[in-house]
Every structure is written in C-alpha cells, then in structure tokens.
C-alpha cells in the first residue's frame, strides 16, 4: 500500500459544486502539504500543516480550504469549484529528519 | 515572495548525450532539493543539498549547490531512455519549499 494515499484519483465536476480531496498517510509525519500542478507552472503550494492545530496558507490559497482531522489525514476543499481550478493536485508529507517530501499519486480534478 | 527559476523548460537529447538543468533563486536558500517526475507519475525525491558549494553524485547524476546558495544544477551524463521525465528543483527552509517550474527531458533512443 502507498504511504500517502489520495482520493479520489480522478474527478469531473461542474462549476459551483463543492469538492473535497482527501489525503491519508501512514508515514507518521506531522508535516503535510497540498500542492497544485499545472502544465508549465510546476508545483504551487496551496496549504500546509505542521500538526492538527496548525494550518498555514501557501502561495495560492484563495478559493481553497483545508482540514487536518488527525495527524494522518489532511483534506482539501473547493467550496465552489470554478474551471480554472482544473489541475492535478498532490498531497505530500515531509520527513522531519531528511526534509524529503513524499507525494501521493495525485488527484486529477476537472471543473466544467 | 521567494521565487525559484528553472531553465530550460524543455530539453530533447539523443540517448548518450549529456543533460543539464539549472535552478536560480531570488533569495539565499537554506537548502535545495531535486525531484524527478516520470510521465503520469508523482514527484520523487532525488537529493538534498545543504552546504555552500556542495557537490553530490548519484551514478550518472551530479548535483551542485552554488557558493552563494542561490543556484543549483543537475547534470546527467550519457542520458538513457529511463531518464525521461520532468526534473524539479525546490528551494526553501525546513518549513516549506518553493518549486521551480521544472525541465521536461525527452530522450530519443
């Protein structure tokens, strides 16, 4: 089983719908991240969390919200999806000793 | 905010040729990491550089961190078809990383 699991892997939705992307991890890391990937734009940080009570905005947090339900779970929500939120979304954890990011397989979201 | 610029955006090589991607930051970095993303896959960690002027090798891959800790490079010697993918640098702190836009490498067999 993957150490970082994202669900759903693919989702097609309509403008205005509420969408939740879920992430769970078995690595025991406190630090979790949500990134968005668009072709030619690399990976951009949406939100990050250092523990259940700590949530921080990244560079592109507008239109998104997150919830850290437990150390192992970090979900990303789009309250009212719009077409320019069509992208590939990655959840990641970070090893506190090595600094390495461990990515999930990604969630591809299409907003029509 | 911190910006990390990476060039080139694309690179196509013949198998056996060398490849280099460069990364530059607008600010001094505490560390820099490199990731590889295969087509259809997720980014996978390659290495982290921390010290000024540091050079590390992994088989055919050589990573460098500049003396001023504001730039870095990844060099692949004698590329193989298994090297295809997008290579990202990521700079920052122990709190968060800022990724470059990546270099897509394609290799013609």
Layout of secondary structure:
The complex is a heterodimer of chains A (112) and B (109).
Chain A: E1 4-7, E2 10-13, E3 19-25, E4 31-38, E5 42-51, E6 54-57, E7 65-70, E8 73-78, E9 87-94, E10 101-103, E11 107-111
Parallel strand pairs in A: 2-11
Antiparallel strand pairs in A: 1-3, 3-8, 4-5, 4-9, 5-6, 7-8, 9-10, 9-11
Chain B: E1 4-7, E2 10-14, E3 19-25, E4 31-37, E5 44-49, E6 55-58, E7 61-65, E8 71-76, E9 85-92, E10 97-99, E11 103-108
Parallel strand pairs in B: 2-11
Antiparallel strand pairs in B: 1-3, 3-8, 4-5, 4-9, 6-7, 7-8, 9-10, 9-11
Task: Provide keyphrases for this structure.
heterodimer, A: 112 residues, mainly beta, 7-stranded mixed sheet, 4-stranded antiparallel sheet, 0% helix, 58% strand, globular, B: 109 residues, 6-stranded mixed sheet, 5-stranded antiparallel sheet
- Tell me the radius of gyration of chain A: 13 Å
Q: Calculate the terminal CA-CA distance of chain B, rounded to whole Å.
A: 41 Å
Poorly predicted parts of chain B: none
Distance between the termini of chain A: 32 Å
Instruction: Give the ordered list of helices and strands of chain A.
Output: EEEEEEEEEEE
Q: Please tell me what the overall shape of chain B is.
A: globular
Number of helices, counting only DSSP H or I runs of 4 residues or more of chain B: 0
Label the overall shape of chain A. Answer: globular
Helix content of chain A: under 10%
Largest sheet of chain A: 7 strands, mixed
Count of beta strands of chain B:
11
Proportion of beta-strand residues of chain A: over 45%
Structural class of chain A: mainly beta
Number of strand segments of chain A: 11
Summing up helix and strand content along with how strands pair, one would put the structural category of chain B as mainly beta
Oligomer: heterodimer
Q: Radius of gyration of chain B, rounded?
A: 13 Å
Q: Please tell me the overall pLDDT of chain B.
A: 95
Order of H and E elements of chain B: EEEEEEEEEEE
Which ranges of chain A are low-confidence, i.e. pLDDT below 50, for 5 or more consecutive residues? Answer: none
State the largest interface: A-B, 23 and 23 residues
